[in-house]
Amino acid sequence: MRMTFQFNFSIEDHLENELTPLGGGTLALDSSEESLVSESQKGKHRDKKCSTEEFDLPRDPSGEPKSVRNAAVFQDTDSSLSVANSSSNLEPYEKQLCLRIAKEHAMPKDLKKVLENKVIEMLPGLQRVNISVVKTILLKENFPGENIVSKSFSSHSDLITGVYEGGLKIWECTFDLLAYFTKAKVKFAGKKVLDLGCGSGLLGITAFKGGAKEIHFQDYNSMVIDEVTLPNVVANSTLEDEENDGNELDVKRCRKSKVVQDLCKCRFFSGEWSEFCKLVLSSEKVFEKYDLILTSETIYNPDYYGTLHQTFGRLLDKNGRVLLASKAHYFGVGGGIHLFQKFIEERNVFETRTLEIIDDGLKRFLIEMTFKSPR
């Protein structure tokens, strides 16, 4: 006689990383850390809607949205750019993604309050808040809304797909791109710039200090914008004011007025990329596209390539360019520069050019993307 037993059980979060997830996992991007987030853990945190309809996709005659992998149509009102490509061999890029609604974050009137409880550190030519201190404070406080710090801490991961996308860490490639700005003497003056997946916002801050006429900062998580990006921008805008010992009241008022005027060039957004596109495109009667989009370590997950490609296509000026920094490969996540370039080539919308290869440790790349010339 043969007996069959069926067991039903669940793995609790507090078991940490002792068990390997059956459905695959996500690795932290840091080369020194390999923390897994199981599919069961990710499922617990996904409270946002998941639907292909949220991607603002072109639709077929039946009214159904076309697949992310099978179509990409971008309308450029200035150049009447319209590109449509289809392929049946573009796996594995189509997956339903959880979308976080985008919102704009207002600049607080009291700039000093933005820097309360923040420890400021110096980088060459830049200031930034100490992120470890920010995390410690947020772990102790009841942050309004979703506290990604506690979730990241309990999961032992710098990434939780659809919940936390790594904005509370400055990844290596950001410093590669900052060094390239200086080396290549990149000009920001008079340009409209987007720091996409900004995290600490150091790329956009460099553009801000370089005289860009308008800078937008975008990150997936609102907590990152409020607790890290905004304070970093304020810290760098008030640097000259703090260093000057002038005591005259009129002089101080003039400096404060200039700081406020400069900060008006900056806008801050959180949310998923397709939702961010909808928000910015609807926020201005005639949307002026970006001359320059800066992005670092945003191509680690192939599931995001379709939305990222759409974002570039919809928001980049016809004569603009994207400067993108990435590792050669993201182990455990699946993305990387070569896979992304292959994705770009298959869509036939952009052309890419390698600007620099860094062989220090994990191989890293800096590339430039521009629209292909109309034929």
UniProtKB/TrEMBL annotation:
Xref: Gene3D superfamilies: Vaccinia Virus protein VP39 (3.40.50.150)
Give the main EC class.
transferase
> What keywords were assigned to this record?
Cytoplasm, Methyltransferase, Nucleus, S-adenosyl-L-methionine, Transferase
Keyword Membrane attached: no
The region annotated as signal peptide is: none
EC number of this enzyme: 2.1.1.85
Task: Enumerate the residue ranges of region (Disordered).
Answer: 31-68
Report the GO molecular function annotations: methyltransferase activity
Among the GO biological process terms of this entry, one is: methylation
Record SUPFAM superfamilies: S-adenosyl-L-methionine-dependent methyltransferases
Pfam families recorded for this chain? Methyltransf_16, PrmA
Q: Which locations, inside or outside the cell, does it occupy? A: Cytoplasm; Nucleus
Q: Which family does it belong to?
A: Belongs to the methyltransferase superfamily. METTL18 family.
Indicate where this protein is primarily found: cytoplasm
Residue spans of biased composition, Basic and acidic residues class: 49-67
Protein known as: protein-histidine N-methyltransferase
